[in-house]
Amino acid sequence: MNRSARFLVVLAVLASLAGVGCDKLKARDQLNKGVQAYRGAQYDAAIEHFKNAVALDPSLSNARLFLATAYAQQCVSPDNMKYCNQAIDEFKTLLQKDPNDIGSLKGIASLYYNMSGWVTGNSPEDTQKKLNLLDESKQYHDRVIKADPSDPEAYYSVAVIDWTESYKHRIDAMAANGQNATGDAPFKDKKVCEQVKQENDPLVQQGIDYLSKAIDLRKDYDDAMAYLNLVYRQKAYIECGDQEAYKQDLATADDWVTKTMATKRAKAEKQQGPGGIVLEQPKQGGSTQ
To answer: 214 phi and psi, to 5 degrees?
Structure first.
């Protein structure tokens, strides 16, 4: 290759590198504009800026994270399902690069959980769809726990799903047998109770274990305490004729109600300064619930 040819090759390479550098600068400009739009709750505009940033620089992880988050903000009802799926897709793309990315794992788990709440029909198909979405959410929360075993909200979130599933199993079985499922009513038919017990025992036990773990990690976790009350009531419903165990479960549930209220009072008193002035507290990371 003569000098002229080598010079042209060098120029081409430099021009290519300059183009790449220019695209990266443009990507960051689009990212900044997207953040400004997002902060102003202009989510459609933010999405376009973030999409442009990702197209200009696919390696810009922050742009993809903001894009997924902006899509998630638009996922507010079944009418916005396309945004829900787009958010999940973007979060999953981030997980391909880092399978333990906590933000993406929690984002997907929260989306699946919210989507499950939109399934309100009582047909077998609707029930299965709801349970499938809950199981998807639980799987991603379990991945959070594996990535960060010290996260109390992940244990709490799995336990909430356990309670939701056990509650669904119970009321569906009662309704199918002509029994009203309100109140602390045990099953009238012991055979039906035993069938539900097989489904609910693992859910109830995991719920108790995970809520207890969440409280170990956060001593004043009143939401977890409140759900322990609910889970112990689900445990009472499947004692299937064991009256002593049934009464003990309800007594334990009542104890957790008392602990929940005491913890809430203590937190409220701690927030108050002299003269009853409420002091601003450091914000804790919110749960997906």
So the answer is: -60, -40
Q: What is the mean pLDDT of residues 133-138?
A: 96
User: Which residues are bridge partners to 272 per DSSP?
Assistant: 278
Report d(CA 275, CA 205) in Å as an integer: 45
Q: Are 152 and 214 in contact (CB under 8 A)?
A: yes
Distance CA 177, CA 103 (A): 43
Main-chain dihedrals φ then ψ at residue 278, nearest 5 degrees: -85, 125
- Alpha-carbon gap, residue 201 to 205, rounded angstroms: 6
Nearest 5 degrees, angle CA 204-CA 205-CA 208? 85
Residues facing 278 on adjacent strands = 272
**pLDDT tier at 285 (50, 70, 90 boundaries)?**
very low
Cβ–Cβ under 8 Å, residues 193 and 240: yes
Who wins on pLDDT, 186 or 169? Answer: 169
pTM score, whole prediction: 0.82
47-81 pLDDT per residue, tens: 998 988 888 898 888 889 999 999 999 999 999 99
C-beta of residue 37 within 8 angstroms of C-beta of residue 49: yes
Phi, psi of 272 (to 5 degrees): -90, 130
